[in-house]
Amino acid sequence: MRKTSQFAVMLTLIATFFWGSNFPVTKFVLANLPPWTASVERFFFAVICIFIFLAWKEGIHTKVLKQNWREFIVLGAIGVAGFNGAFFVGLQSASPITAALIVATTPISANILESIIYRQLPRLIRIIGMVISLLGVALVMTNGQWILGDIIQSATGDMIIFLGSLGWATYTVGIRVFVKNATPLETTSWTMLFGAIILAFIAIFVESPLHALSSGTFESHLACIYIGIGGSAIAYLFWNMGVAIRGAGKTAIFFNFVPIFALLVQMIMGDIPSLAQMVGIVVTIAGVFLGQGMISVDRLFKGILRR
Question: What region holds the EamA domain (predicted)?
Answer without folding.
Answer: 7-141, 156-290
